[in-house]
Amino acid sequence: MNDRSKDAWRNALGKLAPLLALIVVFVLFAVLDAVQPNGGQFLSLRNIQAMLISSAPVMTAALGMTVVIIAAGIDLSAGTAISLCATVLAWVLERQFSIELAIVACVLTGCIAGAVNGLLISRLNVAPFIVTLGTMTAYLGAAKFIAEETTIRPPLEYVPKWMNGLATPTPHPWWLFVAAGVWIMLGLAIIMGLVLRYTVFGRYVFALGSNEQTARLCGLNVPALKVAVYTLSGLFIGLAGVYQFAKLKVGNPISGVGMELKVIAAVVIGGASLNGGRGTILGTLAGTLLMQTIISGCTQLGVKNPAQDIILGVIIIAAVTLDQWRQTRTA
Q1: Residue 7 above 60 pLDDT?
Q2: Which residues, other chains included, contact 92 with Cβ-Cβ below 8 Å and sequence gap of 6+?
Q3: What is the pTM of this model?
Q4: Most buried residue among 44, 60, 170, 194 by CB atoms closer than 10 A?
Q5: Cα gap 58→266, rounded to integer Å
């Protein structure tokens, strides 16, 4: 086997590593749960449905975050922006406007939040970490301002049954196997996977993340591309806000605080490089499900929540360490 073939095998194995890790962890928890007294719930249909629907908000936001991280960016404001979007949706519904208008307002809010991040990063030439750290607090404040520092509770009669189906583990109709929200999220993932792999925009994103200076020299409009990347991420944040509202049925300004860490962790565990230039939608899906599998498996085994957080923290550190080791080898 020549060097080129070896490199191809390494690249293929690297892309499939998160999926293989998910399979191993899933089987491990299934076995551990099956052998414990009164076990066997981990593999139940209801538990699998609950795992998938619980992953949907994080997974949806992570689709956009994947594009941002591939482009060598980061978005610490994702969690509070999700809260802001869900709060806007609840605010519009509370004023007895249609659910369609409320969803449009929610998604548009996410796009605006993403565009603001992109504009600040590209125009001020400040590190994305610093900019989004600032907008994280700003979006939290905006959500509190809209909600008047309380929780917005629109009348339940204004929430249609199909929206409840986005967050209910048991699907309706039953033959869907999982909630409609999961299928919508998977459809979005397929679209984003195709965009990154087969479109000019996708190639530009990878070029920007690989080497920004080279991308400039090749004639790419880097500032406009950054705005487009963060606006696209904002679109998915807005959609995650819809999931968040469907789950909670209220607009809580602090409901998304800390969610950005899960979103970023899903992308990193999925094999994306924080240095930019590498990442896949499949890896992000696997990373999100890996985290949810660990949470569900630990719960079934009676592992307390603090221990679950420690386990997830160790996995995140291991993923970043592996990424740095890969960067060193290829340097």
Answers
A1: no
A2: 101, 102, 105, 106
A3: 0.91
A4: 60
A5: 8
